[in-house]
Structures are given as structure tokens and as C-alpha cells.
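agent> fetching stored inputs for the 2-acetamido-2-deoxy-beta-D-glucopyranose docking request
agent> found them:
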Amino acid sequence: MRFSLVYLLVSLVTFIFAKKASNVPKGFATTQGRNFEVDGKPFAFVGANSYWLPLLTSKEDVEATFKEMQAGGVKVVRTWGFNAINGSELAGALQSGLTYYQVWNSTEWVLNDGPQGLQRLDYVVETAGKYGIKLIVAFTNNWVGYGGTELYINWITGAGKTHDVFYTDRRIVSSYQRYVQTIVNRYKHSPNIFAWELMNEARCSGDLPAGPNCVPGSNTLHTWYQEQSEFVRDLDSHHMITTGGEGHFYWKTPVGYWWNNTWISDYNYNGQAGEDFDLDLQLENIDFGTYHIYAQYWYPLLDFPGSNWTTKSWGLEWIQQHADAAKKANKPVILEEFGLSGYDNKTDAYPEWVDLALKTEHGGIMPWQFGVNGLKESGGNRLIKYADALIDGASPDDGLAIYRNQTFLWNVFTNAAKVQASRFS
Ligand SMILES: *[C@@H]1O[C@H](CO)[C@@H](O)[C@H](O)[C@H]1NC(C)=O
Ligand SMILES: *[C@@H]1O[C@H](CO)[C@@H](O)[C@H](O)[C@H]1NC(C)=O
Ligand SMILES: *[C@@H]1O[C@H](CO)[C@@H](O)[C@H](O)[C@H]1NC(C)=O
Ligand SMILES: *[C@@H]1O[C@H](CO)[C@@H](O)[C@H](O)[C@H]1NC(C)=O
Ligand SMILES: *[C@@H]1O[C@H](CO)[C@@H](O)[C@H](O)[C@H]1NC(C)=O
Ligand SMILES: *[C@@H]1O[C@H](CO)[C@@H](O)[C@H](O)[C@H]1NC(C)=O
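agent> prediction call returned; pasting C-alpha cells
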């Protein structure tokens, strides 16, 4: 970045004003050292991921889902605050009832705040509170799903660009901020918002590749996190803000493994993904850290029958490392997403992962993803988008969903919810 007096002045002004207010309104969640707090009382939770809640077309189904969550002791739900479509998808969306908030048909998106748009998110935000639940709301997606960064890139800079222009092209940054402002202003007075999330799983690469300027040490994501968290803080001085990142480290001591006589430097620790978990957590307006676990998908080379590497033990290490990072930063950290395919894999690993997260004072534990049966819209069957569908009244299942009828897993989380609730009493 070119140094200039104007930039210095702008930074100084942001530095002075972009600060969290200390007088938190009633019912808002905040932090105190390594703990969350609500109304001055420490707060720890088991939560749920459900991006599909605002995609439901029936209010009764939204309500039934929150009711089931409440029965499981869920206190915080993470959902998408974005649903963007291409202009070419509009006719189909109107026909199928697909929820959409932004339509892209030029360099600027058009907002849909109607009944098939943000009013659906309004209902989710409102109903959450009725069931004692707060929401983590993400502003966009690193991935193409439900209209993330790739639509901004495609429409604003045109094809042939790398993924990381999302973080640096000023036209894209202001278009993103225009959307962030819409969402934050809409709900900034609501105690039902737990935290704002800048992006789901920001990385240098997405469905497009990374460019040569987003590399270990370039701090591309760090700079973006800083600017966007200050932007949100200026709009809303009370709600917490987090990154939504997967928790990749940028460690000086290289971590890697041997495979086929080749040393492979590990993406999760070498900064190549784009995040620097420790440094990002130090940002003044990042109130807590998030990380995810998808060991099966991240280590396919090590993950084969007969290998002495296991998803379970790798997950335990990753949980411990993030707990250590939280301690260093003196901020809370949440295990925000984790998933294993296969029922036996889940029953084998989840109890130990959850147990370690509880023991290492994690403020929140949120499996990917919540499942509910008995949904009634369209007779319980509807294709939403991609492979996401309601089938016989069951919410979308990507192989990772956990339904109440899976009693063993359900109990792992409901018991953990009880431990979290009683931690401070
Ligand atoms: C959106 O539509 C444009 C053309 O109208 C197309 O080039 C692009 O691939 C589409 N993007 C997505 C993510 O569907
Ligand atoms: C998108 O733009 C094209 C070309 O300007 C136009 O023909 C089309 O009707 C627009 N579609 C929507 C959904 O606005
Ligand atoms: C292992 O390395 C050798 C030598 O470089 C190469 O020929 C072989 O294709 C590699 N095996 C796999 C499975 O990639
Ligand atoms: C298996 O364990 C040995 C000894 O700890 C280690 O050197 C090796 O890298 C491990 N193999 C795999 C595939 O992880
Ligand atoms: C269980 O995990 C192993 C190791 O990651 C994987 O190979 C297997 O496919 C998983 N089982 C199912 C049913 O997904
Ligand atoms: C639980 O519900 C899911 C979703 O409807 C279904 O696929 C699964 O078979 C059910 N499992 C049991 C054990 O009943």
C-alpha cells in the first residue's frame, strides 16, 4: 500500500472511533477475557450450524426447527446472511421459491428485501429470540455456494481473475461493504444477533485459484479482516465480530509430513491458506476466534486403511492448538464447524473432540450441521439448490447432518450443552 497523509489520517480516525463500546445493551453477548458474557454473566454454549433455516419457505418449519434446537440445548445458531443469485437464475428462483437477497446482473447487485428475500431472514432472527437462541450471521462465502465471493469477482472485475482480488479490488470491497451495511443496519439493535462474521472460510483461493500476491507473509487476509472489522464496528459498536475462518496458522516452525519420499508442507500451518490465526486474533475488533475441522478432506494422502494417522487424533491436536492460541490472545475461541462422514466415524471421534473442547474452556462448540425431521413445506419434499433438498420432511443432509433420532450423537451434544450451561454456576 502506498503511504500517504490521507491514509494516515483515515487510519487515525478509524483507530480512535472503531472501538467496541463498553456499555453493552441488555441481552447482547460480549466477551470478558477468555469467556463470553450475557448481561454480565459468563456464557458458554453448544451451538448448531444451519445455513438452510432462511431457505425454508414455511414459518411453521422455521419455528419447528428452533424448537428442536432448543430441545437439544442449543444456544447459538450460525447461518448465512447472504443468498445471492445471478440475474439468469431469477426466473427460476421466482418459480421455485428460492430465497434470495441479492441479484447480480451488472457491476452492482440489487437488493431483495421482499417476502422471498430479507423478510425470510427477519423471521429467522425474530424467531431465534423466542427460543432463547442467538445467531452468528456470515456476510459472504469464500466458496461459490449460495452466491459468495465469486459473484462479486465475476461481475465487477470480469472473468480470468484470481480469487484474492476479492480482498484487494476497491470496487469489490465497497460493493461488499454496501451489503454488510444493509445487513448490520437491519439487525444492529437486536439482542438475537450473537456476532457478525466477515466471511465463511476466507482463503487466498476459493473456487478460483489464488494469485501470486496472496502468499504467506503478504497479510492479505489480515489486512482485509482489519479493515472490514473496523467497518462493521463503525456501524455497530455493540455486537461481537469474528472472522469465520477455518483457523489456519502461520507458524515459523514448519509443520509437514513425508509422503512418497517427499516432504509436504502443511497448508494448515504454513500460511498458504491465507490466515494467520494468532495474528488475526489480536485485531482489536475481532472479538473471538473461530476454527473448523475437516480432517478427512484435508489429509486425503495420510488417510488410508493401515495408516497410523487418524482423523480423531489430528482433530484432538487441532483443538488443543486453538485452545493454546486463545489463552495467548486472552480471547474466547469457538470450534465453529466440524464434520466427519460416516456414522461410526462420528461416534468414534465426536465424544473425544467435544470432551477436549469442554476441558480446554472453549466458549462454543458447533457441529456441522443440524438436522431436523418432520418439516412440512411442499409435503416435505423440495429441491432447494445444488444437492440441497428436503426429503420426506428431513432437512438437507450432506452426510454430516445430525438428527435427533441418532440418539448417541444427539446425547453427546445435549450432554455437552448441559456441561457448558453449568460451567459457571
Ligand atoms: C453468472 O452469470 C454469468 C453470466 O450471466 C456467468 O458468466 C457466471 O458464470 C455466472 N456465475 C455463477 C456463479 O453462476
Ligand atoms: C439482465 O441483463 C440483461 C442484459 O442487460 C437483460 O436482458 C435481462 O433482462 C436482465 N435480467 C434481469 C433478471 O434483470
Ligand atoms: C511417488 O514418487 C515417484 C517418484 O517421484 C513417482 O513416480 C510416483 O508417481 C509417485 N507416486 C504417487 C502415488 O504419486
Ligand atoms: C507413522 O508413525 C511414524 C513414527 O511416529 C512416523 O514417522 C510416520 O510419519 C507415521 N506415518 C504416517 C503415514 O503418518
Ligand atoms: C470413515 O473414515 C474413513 C477415514 O477417514 C473413511 O475412509 C471412510 O470412508 C469413512 N466412512 C464413511 C462411511 O464415510
Ligand atoms: C434419522 O433421520 C434421518 C433423516 O430423516 C434418516 O435418514 C435416518 O435414517 C434416521 N435414522 C434413524 C436411526 O432412524
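agent> quick read of the result: The first strand starts at residue 29 and ends at 32.
agent> awaiting further instructions
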